[in-house]
Write a structure and sequence with these properties.
Layout (H helix, E strand, L loop, with lengths): L3 E6 L5 H11 L5 E8 L5 H8 L4 E3 L8 H14 L4 E4 L8 H6 L4 E5 L14 H10 L3 E8 L9 E8 L6 H24 L3 E4 L2 E4 L2
Parallel strand pairs: 1-2, 1-4, 2-3, 4-5
Antiparallel strand pairs: 5-6, 6-7, 8-9
Length: 208
């Protein structure tokens, strides 16, 4: 087993980041959060990190003349903080190819639906849950997947389902899904800490 040295990327309040932090504190996840990075200076995730003495940085493409300069600074920060794994926790930006190459098969994202359904550009937050409801789905869920150069496309590591009831509003679905996200993300990260994930093309195999 190896300890994951995590960078958390978040754009908003970071509830999944907080759930990961809690799983570490409770001994359910063998990891340490090295740094939290947000493209949003006002992100609640940064506030939570600072309250818990975790390095927290606002780092945005808009701060740089071009995307390559942003990539170089982001990689410098990750190396400075000795990061060996990245967890996207509500990060609303596409990860650029240079970062994906540097952290090949070491970047996870969580999506609030059962991919490949209800994924892709523009399918995030309430848009996902509204689509699930309008389509008449009886089941939805969460997907934790490795990140590649397309939105919501990399190999799936963990999926968990939740029911959808006829009286549900998108908000009710969202709340039920978010509870499951907090379970699934820590579980997926722990699989990597235990070195149980084998990647074969678009498939992942989990060793018992």
């Amino acid at each position: 087993m190896k300890s994951l040295k995590l960078a958390i990327f978040a754009s908003g309040r970071g509830s999944n980041f907080q759930a990961i932090y809690q799983a570490i504190e409770e001994g359910k996840l063998n990891a340490r959060i090295q740094v939290v990075i947000s493209n949003n200076a006002d992100a609640g995730a940064l506030d939570f990190a600072r309250e818990h003495q975790i390095p927290a940085l606002h780092l945005s493409r808009n701060q740089f003349t071009n995307a390559s300069m942003f990539d170089l600074e982001l990689l410098r920060v990750l190396r400075e903080h000795d990061v060996n794994f990245i967890a996207l926790a509500g990060y609303m930006k596409l990860i650029r190819p240079q970062i994906i190459r540097e952290f090949h098969n070491r970047i996870l994202n969580i999506h609030p639906a059962l991919l490949p359904s209800f994924g892709g550009k523009g399918m995030y937050g309430h848009f996902v849950h509204e689509a699930v409801r309008e389509y008449g789905c009886k089941v939805t869920g969460v997907t934790v997947h490795l990140v590649d150069e397309e939105y919501d496309h990399g190999p799936i590591v963990v999926q968990k389902t939740v029911p959808v009831y006829s009286e549900d509003t998108p908000e009710m679905i969202a709340n039920r899904v978010l509870e499951m996200e907090h379970v699934a993300y820590a579980e997926a990260l722990q699989l990597f800490a235990e070195e149980r994930v084998q990647i074969q093309g678009r498939r992942t195999l989990i060793r018992l």
